[in-house]
Amino acid sequence: MSRQLSYSKAILEATDQAMALCPEVVVLGQLVDTKSGIFGTTTGLAEKYGADRVQDFPVSENLMTATAMGASLTGLRPVIAHQRLDFMLYSLDAIANWMALWRFKSNGKSAMPVTIRTIVGKGWGQGPQHSKSLHAWFAHLPGLRVAVPATAYDAKGLLLESIFSETPAIFVEGRGLYSMTDEVPEEPYRVRFGQAVIRRPGKDATLVAIGSMVPIAMRAAAILEKDGVDVEVVDPRTLTPLDRRTICDSVFKTRRLVVADPAWHSFGAAAEIVSTVAENLGDKLKAKPVRVTLPDSHTPMSMALEPEYYPDDSDIVSAVKQTLA
Amino acid sequence: MSRQLSYSKAILEATDQAMALCPEVVVLGQLVDTKSGIFGTTTGLAEKYGADRVQDFPVSENLMTATAMGASLTGLRPVIAHQRLDFMLYSLDAIANWMALWRFKSNGKSAMPVTIRTIVGKGWGQGPQHSKSLHAWFAHLPGLRVAVPATAYDAKGLLLESIFSETPAIFVEGRGLYSMTDEVPEEPYRVRFGQAVIRRPGKDATLVAIGSMVPIAMRAAAILEKDGVDVEVVDPRTLTPLDRRTICDSVFKTRRLVVADPAWHSFGAAAEIVSTVAENLGDKLKAKPVRVTLPDSHTPMSMALEPEYYPDDSDIVSAVKQTLA
Amino acid sequence: MELSHRTLSRSGHYRDLSLSDLSPALSLGLFRQMLRLRRTEEALLAEYHPAEEMRCPIHFCIGQEAVPAALSTLVRTDDFLFSHHRSHGYYFAKGAPLRELFAEIYGRETGANGGRAGSQDISHSDSHFYSGAILSGAVSIAVGAAFGFKFKKSPQVAISGFGEGATDEGAFWEAMNYSGKQKLPILFVIENNRYATFSDQLKRQADDNITERVRPFGVRATKIFGNDCALAHRTLRSAIERLRSGDGPELVEAYTYRWNSHVGPEDDGANNYRGPEEMAFWKDNCPIVLLEERLREAGLLSDAEKARMESEIAAEIAANFKFAKESPFPKAADWRAMNYEDRSPMADRLLGTAARGAFDHDQAEAKLGPY
Amino acid sequence: MELSHRTLSRSGHYRDLSLSDLSPALSLGLFRQMLRLRRTEEALLAEYHPAEEMRCPIHFCIGQEAVPAALSTLVRTDDFLFSHHRSHGYYFAKGAPLRELFAEIYGRETGANGGRAGSQDISHSDSHFYSGAILSGAVSIAVGAAFGFKFKKSPQVAISGFGEGATDEGAFWEAMNYSGKQKLPILFVIENNRYATFSDQLKRQADDNITERVRPFGVRATKIFGNDCALAHRTLRSAIERLRSGDGPELVEAYTYRWNSHVGPEDDGANNYRGPEEMAFWKDNCPIVLLEERLREAGLLSDAEKARMESEIAAEIAANFKFAKESPFPKAADWRAMNYEDRSPMADRLLGTAARGAFDHDQAEAKLGPY
Lengths: 325, 325, 371, 371
Ligand SMILES: Cc1ncc(C[n+]2csc(CCOP(=O)(O)OP(=O)(O)O)c2C)c(N)n1
Ligand SMILES: Cc1ncc(C[n+]2csc(CCOP(=O)(O)OP(=O)(O)O)c2C)c(N)n1
Ligand SMILES: [Mg+2]
Ligand SMILES: [Mg+2]
What we know:
The complex is a heterotetramer, with two copies of chain A and two copies of chain C. Chain A is an alpha/beta fold. Chain A has helices spanning 7-21, 37-40, 45-49, 61-73, 92-105, 135-140, 152-164, 213-226, 244-254, 269-281, 306-309, 313-324, and strands at residues 4-6, 25-29, 54-55, 77-82, 115-120, 145-147, 169-174, 181-183, 197-200, 205-209, 231-235, 238-240, 257-264, 290-294. Chain A has a seven-stranded mixed sheet with strand order 3-2-4-5-7-6-12, with helices on both faces. A five-stranded mixed sheet of chain A has the order 9-11-10-13-14, sandwiched between helices. In chain A, strands 1-8 form a two-stranded antiparallel sheet. In chain A, helix 1 (7-21) runs parallel beside helix 7. In chain C, helix 5 crosses helix 13 (303-326). Chain C is α/β, with parallel strands linked by helices. Chain C has helices spanning 5-8, 24-51, 66-72, 88-93, 98-105, 137-151, 170-182, 201-204, 210-214, 229-244, 276-284, 287-297, 303-326, 335-339, 345-350, and strands at residues 80-83, 129-131, 158-163, 186-192, 195-196, 199-200, 220-225, 250-255. Chains A and C meet through helix 4, helix 5, helix 7, strand 8 and helix 8 of A and helix 6, helix 7, helix 14 and helix 15 of C. The complex binds thiamine diphosphate (2 copies) and magnesium ion (2 copies).
């Protein structure tokens, strides 16, 4: 098994296979039925499965979300897609006041198996309204699952798992990852939520990297290796549920923690991971944990500021070295 | 100076004084002009300042927020009020995609001095759509200030400060605090953002309590005192900016940390505080920090479940004892 | 004369209720449903204080019985009904078990939602009845159910019941636009009771003309005097028939009035939002009385028959109270299980596992173009 | 004939442009504004690739010059104008400095926003010009500005420019409802170019009838052939006059067409969303050509005069490019200062400090009633 597939093609393949496996899977989103197809992740599906199952939607994000929710009550398995996470903010009422608590308030009698794909923009001057990364918001809400796949393999497996499980899922994609390839099995397969993966074993420090920080963290680990530092890179893959055990086991071994999160610093997902470790191993750490994140600032458009704004492998290298100083 | 005023009356007084001080202060919100006046916090203002300055608004939360934003560009100082935080979720697009980043994207040339008052429901079966506590969401967004006043004194001072400063503010009120009184000076005064207060000095452990957890934490501290445990209670009063220094100084002294936050456990404000301490003092803690929060669950309506759902002083007492074990 | 709240409250006693197209059994059935809803609400209202055992907000619907009663005879079991916060009438309409309503608002494990939801969020999924307290939110979800029915080419319809206040929300207009465009099988039922809490419609909208507003969106809209239960039945029946033949969506705006406070039993009159003449008009035109007048004229209802109904209903209510009060409270909660479903039968059936290779991290990021 | 995109693209060359009520200077001024906008956009489009120095999404507005040009002669300095993502025309209309537009999209410190915002989020507060890329968001904010003007009894008006796509959003309808109810001094200008990205209006809305939709909300609405700049001027002028006299709000829907891709210079034709006949109609009815025909007929524009304009404009554009390219990039950022304003002159002036007593924590919580 060594077929390489890009992240975007893996998403397309997962959706295609889900639609083939189950006639109740429908895809809704602005322009999902066009050739460009959400950066190629839905291209061809309308032709293959028909206009009923792959539907363009008015620019009404709130209703689009609610439509998927209501449709799921009739037995459909809707997948909706937002070209940018920013656009989905119009639908937060539907998500936070309804979708997340639907099962709870029905006392477990009714479920809304909806999958919301959402893409974080980065680069080429996307600016403050086209680049927000709010996975921490979704992870703070009970009743949702949140996937932050970093590789094509995980993107495919987690998307299939999202579509065919019962708890609604927010599926956060990093646009920067789209062209990266990975070994992706051809058959439909699942990746379970709540199972982190050790991307690189190591003994000197634990580096937890979220979503699009994973490849950057791996590059940082390679650099550190040359300096004789052996970093363990943990990719949680999903934030809710969060695989706290794998993270803590790793830190128990290394006694050092760096968290790399492609999101704002304060009140973000990195804080949850640092806290989890502190709560479990706070008295065993050999160094203060470090977060590598975006600054607490909106995204500047200028190409002179973007590189400063987004953390890179050298920021991670310094952070890890800080824990070893 | 020993005038006692309730939290709700302090909010009313702050608004009243702001309106008297500045003719550009306007109040918008559903039913702000009625006798019941948002639980008494706007009662009488319409009569005193006229229907132009105290306006009922259609049930259009998104537009209400945007209206306040646009009005602020013309020099007004709008205060808007939501009877429940849950209702304001319709306005998250206006807040996150526009208000929070307005100043940033204007390169500091344009400001939106808007104050958004929002009330967290608790008790009497409010249930999952009337009790959400999402201060961590607002605190995660750059460009906003977030106040979580626990006392009438702070409510008045922080509200006046919010209205007359330049960065938009989210002002989160706990309904449970409304009847509690405090010494409240009669004159208009300010409480600065980013300045925590030590509500009770102590040496054995630091207990950071947010918003409506403050009185509960103080009661817990009193109980612990009887057991010979001397707890320092820190009230951050605002989450953005967060007074990390006062918190860390306290923990540096006590080497122990408990955070009580009236919000969901995971990815919440408590995590930010634990992380801040871990990053600064992670190698100096004598015990693992503990969070006392709501469970990661939506709010049950039944009076049999509510008491289980909301943490109380005994939960805090146990948490503190855990850090001392 | 143009139907509106302004004109109505000056228009005297209503005399146009006609039973011509209703069978005697149906007429009596409608009457009984209204009476049952009225008596139930009255009983809950009376019990609310001082016992304080129903600890959740309840938005009573006394005065607004006609539409729910009419709907109750028209919806099929497999139709979906979505209600706003003022939910009891719609819960009735869908034929969901009343004792589970009582137990729910008493916060008991035997409640429709095990005491998790309460009155304003109650649902009964076996009956395909759902509700929620965020204005207009359930309207949008109902659109999704209609989407599902259309997708499956099913004759089912989605019904969404709410007040004129929900039309202030932008979410509502997205629902109009999309259901009109897609011709979805959905019936929007507006009970226009003039107020959102204490705010008059004309304080929030330039005019009392919701039907005119929705029509250009492709939604067929009718407005009626909503306390005429026979008219409500006739109007809703035609609308639902058209929907089942694929000619949706439909909106019916029924002018009616709530007799009680916005929420709970306390008097909210201190807010001075409505006058006594208005209340007098609507009490004079009580939907139950209007139907009863005709039933008696037509010799369909005797004192004895009514007394029999009253006592049946009273017995039912008493039994429901008893059931609720004797039911156990929910036990210490498993919060995780209440919020997440860990079982995944469908994924188990359709998906296997597959080995994962090593990710080659040494790749450049995609250069995100401008779009 | 009913004005709509379907009918228009079959209607041949437009011959109704009339200069009767326009002074020669104004007519020429409109022409010059359109030409200037066109040439600027063409120049930016040509420069975009392969230099790759304008690294932000740009939604070009070639073909849509008439409305911005008309507005440019009607707005006052203290009126506020809020634009959607396709912002350059409106930036022109408000008379904001073009070199700051160029520098902004080049990401330079001298840009209107110091390179923080780029084309789709550009603003120029001294000119009271604002924009943003989230559909319909700026429409709502414009309502707030109009609220402020009404509150202050100022003759200023708010103008909000956007496409037909924004009317899909619920937020838009809240704006209609509230501005109609409050009679706010706001002008909504819709440039209906038929598509939202690649999605035809009729794929998203049941009908091409936005003006009919908004009228019942209390918004006066007019639709026009939007490539007739004289007509656009006439229509917008009357609307703005009525607004200044307090008789708002107004909506003008101008049918027009974008010649380029939705965003950027690349061809998006592979998405097959529009046909060549349609493009041919709109190019044949280029707003600049339509006005030029009349100007020449009336002897108001000579070849020499046009050549003079062209060369002035070319010089201006060249200077703007030079300014942008020679300007410094922003320096290492102080993220905090960019996002928060720590100064508070007003609070400093109005508020003192006051001593705080000790809070008595030994109080019961308020018992939250049901409401
Ligand atoms: C989004 C949102 N905003 C505000 C509220 C508070 N609220 C509860 S009921 C109500 C009035 C509803 O009026 P209407 O829709 O006419 O229904 P009625 O109560 O008259 O039956 C309001 C504003 C809410 N539930 N949801
Ligand atoms: C809330 C939101 N959803 C989606 C988008 C993506 N988007 C950008 S432009 C556009 C189409 C806009 O069409 P229209 O409003 O007609 O303006 P035009 O581009 O045609 O000038 C869309 C859908 C967005 N910017 N904001
Ligand atoms: Mg109402
Ligand atoms: Mg368009």
